[in-house]
Amino acid sequence: KEENGKPPSDCMACHDAPEEEFIYRGLKVNHQDFLAYGAVCESCHRGVTTVPNVIDDASCLACHIFGVDHAQDTEEIHRVHAEGRHKIECFSCHGEPRHGPEAQAEILEEFDCRRCHFDQHNIQRQTYLSAGEAAGGDDWNDEATLVSPMFMAHVDCSGCHVVPGPLDAKPHSGAMVRRAAVEGCDGCHKPGLGERMIPLWQNASRSLWEKADGEYQTLDPLVTEGDARRLLDEARDLLELVEQDGSWGVHNPRYTQKLLEKARENIAAARDAMTPRDDP
User: What is the pLDDT of residue 3?
Assistant: First the structure.
């Protein structure tokens, strides 16, 4: 990290960070805050820019007719074409970088683990990428509220899972997996944010889950059919989704809270829908 508030990144070679605060899909973004922490551009923008073209001898022949034996050393060539009287646009040699979803899709197509590994971490992906389907469909389709801000900032799993360790299922195989750690937050945010916020998210989610699960366990043996049974089954699915995700809210705090609130609403509705025969 640099001390002058500028990130050590090649992105700054072409453009500066935006100075004005703006709203992106419901998320307030102020680049100056991140620069103050010394965050690098790639901590949020990783994987959204294509790799620049490799410059080979053939690139020179687009403008010159001499052979490689007349070429100068790399530093001199760069000085002449970037600063000298033969200055040309950077894109002429390096190609024009592509940003955004098109570039990101191209990168993902180059190597897709899902060709062999089916539905690995599917529940975690569903929670992180969710736009609210499991928590009520069209009633909760506000992406600014339900989509994780980290996902909108293009942070992938490796942004938080930073500590390597052996695979639990095969500890002696040599296979390693990166586990989530609070220090992963420090790469983008003010140091100590993860240590402070993660316990708050997890404690709140666990407490709400335990209340909902207790309410479910009380009613479950008493209801066998009808609308009450359907509502309870939906509540059970929501509780299992949160439990199997395993992050207890960290992957998407607001969405997790919505899931648990929806589960409790279903349980309350099931209680109201119980027939006199079911009601103790």
Answer: 40
